[in-house]
Amino acid sequence: MKILKKDQMEEVRPHMVGGEGECTVRQFLPVDCAYGAGRLFAVNTLEPGCSVGYHKHQGEYEVYYILEGVGHVVDDGEEYDLAAGDMMQCRDGSSHSIENRSDKPLRFLALILNVRDPA
User: Is residue 119 over pLDDT 70?
Assistant: First the structure.
């Protein structure tokens, strides 16, 4: 299966989970093609001054992988910066946010995956 960039759903989400400005979300894998693995498989873009608000994950976890730019993360109260090639995981029951404090766009993979019981 292939999904060309031009065929991927892209939307601009204002104040994403209470964040500042807008987040552009380009879903490269539709949920119905993910075999129940999760609910978001996207490249997110935050322009300078924009953020994804602090939020909690229950029954799922989220991975951010930075493609370009620098993101300021709050991860269960701990603050740090991530740059291209860095990643973070917000585990089930944890909370996080990400903000672009730089003067360049921040692009990152965002994967929201379901927690599975080992069988």
Answer: no
